[in-house]
Amino acid sequence: MAQHEAIQGLIKKYNENQLSHVFLIETNDKMAALQDIKDFVKVVNCPEDYTPQCSKCNLCHLIATDQLPSLEIVIPDGQAIKKSQMEDLKQKFSSIPYLSRYNTYIIEDAEKFNASSANTMLKFIEEPERNILGFLITNNRENVISTIKSRCEIVKIFYEKENQGISERIYELAENYLYKIEVEKQQTIVYNKIVLDEKLEREEMVLFFKTLFQIYYDLFQGKSISEKLKVMESFSSQILMARLRLVSEMLDRLNFNVNLHLLLDDFVLRLEDSYEHLWCEV
Is residue 275's pLDDT more than 70? Predict the structure, then answer.
């Protein structure tokens, strides 16, 4: 996936040693922006010259799967970002990173700071450490508390809405696949045969996973979907977010020369594991 021009601009600033320490990202697609930011995090933390297909270290995989200890993604706790979440963030980043150059935090829905969490965040922003980068994501910067907004470098990342060449065949395949593993709960690698029998080329497999991502994302945004998948509208935002991140990881891995059969097997097995884990927490 090509980097957004705004991300390319941040990379240029990084190479020129002119990078700010905190950014307010205004976007019309929060999930796409999150993925682009994570790609940027890969670039600035790469111990060598970054290339998307590099496999010399495990850093990119840790970032893609949200397992890098020095990368913290904060989502609102209910209807607001809480003061305790900001205090936890400060505590986690009180030491220098050991696997990467930067401690990086990404805060989703930055418009949901309340007064107490914003005050705690201000102290974090106003006393920056050299090894900390921050990204606050919002769909409307005017809704972000002014004291926070005024201390951030504002970056606009807007995406063209297009179908990305997804054919009716690919969409129907993705819909049937989700029906088996999400509606009928037949979460078994046997149903990967639905996809494998289509003998998709790698580019088509990318479109297939992008379609899965779009369906989950439409659900996350509260949009209606086909009657066939209607039961998925009952999924919580927590479950949908876990799904979106898993699909994003699969898309990231498709940049490499992975075995498509094994990739699908891993997807189904981890989807089932995450589903059971999240329902146990509810």
Answer: no
Q: Which two tokens stand for residue 25?
A: 């990202």
Residue 278: its pLDDT value, please? 45
Facing residues of 106 across strands? 73, 135
Distance CA 197, CA 182 (A): 20
CA 279/CA 104 separation, integer angstroms: 29
Cα separation, 214 vs 116, in Å, equals: 35
**Among 224, 192, 189, which Cα is nearest to 209's?**
192
Closest C-alpha among 157, 144, 153 to residue 21:
153
The crossing angle, in degrees rounded to 10, of helices 237-253 and 202-220 is 160
pTM: 0.68
In tens, the pLDDT along 102-121 reads 999 999 999 999 999 999 99
Separation CA 52–CA 183 (nearest Å) = 35
